Amino acid sequence: MIAVLILFWLSLGALVWTHAAYPAFAALIARVATRRVRKADIEPTVAVIIAAYDEESVIARRIENLLELDYPAEKLQIVVSSDASSDRTEEIALQYPAVRVISNPRGGKVAAQDRAVRQTDSEVVAFSDANATWSPDALRTLVRAFADDDVAYVCGQLRILRADGSNKEGVYWRYELRVRDAESRLGSVTGGNGSIYAVRRADYVEVDPRFGHDLSLPYLMVQRGRRAVYEADAHAWEKPTPSNETEYRRKVRMFEHCWLILLRGKMLRRLGPLYWIEVVSHRLLRYGSGILHLVLLATSLALVTHGSVYDLVLAAQVLLFAAAVVGVDRALLRARLVGDARCARELPATRRPRDLGSCGGHSVNRVLDVAIAGAGLVVSSPLLALGALAVKLEGGGPVLYKQTRVGKEGTDFELLKLRTMVVGAEKQGAGYAIDKGDARITKAGRVLRRVSIDELPQLWNVVRGEMSVIGPRPTLRYQVDAYDEEQLHRLDVKPGITGWAQIHGRASLPWAERIELDLWYVRHHDWKTDLLILLRTPLALFGGTYKGPTGGWTKPN
């Protein structure tokens, strides 16, 4: 219990510090210990570099906006560095005599930026996204900070506009800009933005192409004894991504880059005490908030009835998750109304009109899914770690096995498991079919499969919203393609880790019988059924996990 209490207060304290106390601390210290930037009206030579990949719809507008900047034309060079664009981006850019176009092999944004820097010789290199718009005085305002010899990097202020041109900045974005301003006044920012920033050529650093400039350049400047500052009066505008789903995918990519930098970029080395606190508070703890929330949730559940503070914290978390899920559900509902052919295949209309408009009930289910899966990940983490170690020690190779399965409404997703078979097993022997004694199963895999530890990573599929804790097991695309019209209703609900068929025999059942059990669940499930499945699942864990010589499935005649 002492360990649980320590974890509770550490995770709660870290979350409060990174989201509330640190911004207030930074603002307070910045008021009494401001490190000013010695600005002046200077006009260094500047190359504005736009890394572009298939930007034909916006590149002309971007170039024309830069040509209208209030900056001497003889000191300004506009460079479009194309990352192997397959559309008319390069052709359109070449129509402007003042613009230099560089064609690159496909290598990503950073590689295109690096090559453009190498092929220019200006005193300052500035960068912008192809979909951004700068104010006429943006560049002149941006470079004023370079009058201070200590400044190596300057980022401007990005403003988000609606499609009609009105402001769409949310509370979080305004909050983030205030933190950035405070950090700049303390000495250096911990992150910039890709829409508007500039670097002295002498200080430019070529980073790992996977990192990106927004997070890597500021701390690299500080490690070299230089400053990375924020200029709030240098404005750029962008329109928001078209949907929450698109923004979510963009944030996931950014999040992967951020963790990569934190783990591989030596971010915490050679930093002064104050900047080290900034990086840990604003970056490390912020990016670790998801893990901290899971730890806090698990410890709050363990401490229920041990004091009102624990009950209140748990209630607050449930409300927070509910609010988040309701927002996601509304976004997904809008996406379905509009339609997205990339994400879903056409399916017969559901036969359960009682489900229409049940967003509220689904939101509650989603909150419970996240709570159960989050707590499960925390509680099972020792088993996961031991299982992963066993997999790695037996012949090396990847720890996780990823396989494309079909989810709700025919959407493909990547199912996660601990690898229990030799690498490339699906291309050997019986392919996807697995039978008891299959030579492709590793020694560690036999143990993991026997007690279903290999399925634990799917709790992360639940957290990501691709699966539910309870539902029909997800199947492969070639199996779904053989469904008849009735069987397609199996896809009316999210696939689950456990389900009605699992507690009635799992894979030992004939395929057709499993499908019928899943269809019964789709038509009749309610909270009582779900509770029964949860209670009976532990008893089913030691049931059959092998599917026979045909994988438990035969193609219909």
What count of domains describes the coordinates? 2
Number of DSSP E strands = 12
User: Which strand order does the major sheet show?
Assistant: 3-2-1-4-7-6-8-5
Count of DSSP helices? Answer: 17
Going by CATH, the architecture of the largest domain would be: Alpha-Beta Complex
What would you give as the CATH superfamily of the largest domain?
Answer: Spore Coat Polysaccharide Biosynthesis Protein SpsA, Chain A
The radius of gyration is: 27 Å
**Beta-strand residue fraction:** 5-15%
Report the biggest beta sheet as strand number plus sense, adding barrel if it closes: 8 strands, mixed
Order of helices and strands: HEHEHEHEEHEHEHEHHHHHEEHHEHEHH
Give the low-pLDDT segments.
331-361, 544-557
Task: Report the structural category.
Answer: alpha/beta
Large-scale geometry: globular
Would you state the CATH class of the largest domain? Answer: Alpha Beta
| Average pLDDT number | 82
Q: Give the N-to-C terminal Cα separation.
A: 58 Å
Helix percent band:
40-55%
- What's the CATH topology name of the largest domain? Spore Coat Polysaccharide Biosynthesis Protein SpsA, Chain A
Q: Concise description?
A:
The chain is an alpha/beta fold and 557 residues long. Helices cover 45% and strands 13% of the residues. It is built from 17 helices and 12 strands.
